[in-house]
Specification:
Layout (H helix, E strand, L loop, with lengths): L10 H24 L11 E3 L6 E3 H17 L4 E4 H6 L13 E8 L1 H5 L6 E8 L2 E9 L4 E6 L4 E3 L2 E2 L11 E5 L7 H7 L7 E5 L3 H9 L5 E4 L4 H13 L3 E3 L16 E4 L2 H12 L3
Helix pairs in contact: 1-2, 6-7
EC number: 3.1.3.25
Pfam families: Inositol_P
Protein name: inositol-phosphate phosphatase
């Protein structure tokens, strides 16, 4: 199996042939650059970006470099939009607007957890073309969990099909929301309607793992106030393919290309998504 896209090959045909190669590339990057540093980070391997809560490590940088090289080689003509590359050069993000296939990469989603020795982090990869998320890979390396989704073909965790299903009636909806350490006062106000009867909001950890929890039916919804594509693209497809849905304040699906009416929600079923979105609208 393996190797590069043929000249006349569609993205679907490429995925049918090479999705296992993508999974292998993700696993190798984690094995080489992330897991050896887990609970062994030296002080010089951790830096701040925008502030004390916005951390980056050598694991983030080196895993992204490796994934950029390996994914680009698998699909010649594709572009990689990685969190660390965009931090270095924001213009990289504009590739999401182009027609070429784009790999969206978050090498360590949940860097704060990773730095603190908590296993609640993952590597996120999504393949996007013309703003549509076509496939996604979510690897919680420290937990040895691997979730995948291909549009129209379902979501899977370690080979088992995921079905989110509706919440059990009569209990509070558990909703993971943007962490207060990462939100402005305005964003906190926008999320405040979730603190109401019938809902049980809590702060989110790794966004990728929260999306996986929704896809598994373990979490009812997420509500987030930021739109960085690397945090959302992989998980949104997992949720969709497990039977869930996502809505912005205008009632439209979230677009990875940006320009969304925030905050937005992703939920295990359409009724839950509407309920959360309706509440969020009351703040505006």
């Amino acid at each position: 199996m393996g190797g590069m896209i043929e000249e006349t090959e569609t993205i679907d045909e490429f995925l049918a042939r090479c999705s296992a190669d993508v999974e292998e590339a993700v696993r190798k990057a984690a094995a080489a650059e992330i897991l050896p540093r887990f609970r062994r980070l030296a002080a010089h391997e951790v830096d701040q970006k925008s502030g004390p809560h916005d951390l980056v490590t050598d694991a983030d940088r080196l895993a992204e470099l490796r994934l950029t090289e390996d994914l680009g080689a698998l699909l010649p003509g594709s572009v990689v939009v990685g969190e660390e590359a965009v931090h270095a050069d924001p213009a990289v993000y504009r590739a999401l607007q182009d027609d070429v296939p784009v790999w969206i990469v978050d090498p360590v989603d949940g860097t704060r957890q990773f730095v603190h020795g908590d296993d609640g982090f993952c590597t996120l990869v999504a393949l996007v073309q013309r703003g549509v998320v076509i496939a996604s890979w979510t690897y919680a390396a420290a937990r040895d969990q691997f979730a995948t989704a291909v549009r129209g073909q379902g979501a899977f965790l370690d080979g088992e099909r995921l079905f989110a299903g509706p919440p059990a009636p009569g209990r509070d909806l558990v909703v993971a929301t943007s962490h207060p350490d990462y939100t402005t006062d305005e964003q906190k106000r926008a999320l405040r309607p979730l603190w109401t009867d019938g809902l049980a909001p809590r702060v989110c950890g790794s966004a990728g793992l929260e999306y996986l929890a929704v896809a598994r039916g373990e979490l009812d919804a997420v509500a987030f106030s930021w739109e960085a594509a690397w945090d959302h693209a992989a998980g949104l497809l997992l949720v969709e393919e497990a039977g869930g849905t996502h809505l912005t304040l205008t009632g439209e699906p979230f677009r990875v290309t940006g320009g969304n009416a925030l905050p937005f929600t992703a939920a295990r079923d359409a009724a839950t998504a509407r309920r959360v979105a309706d509440l969020l609208r009351t703040a505006s």
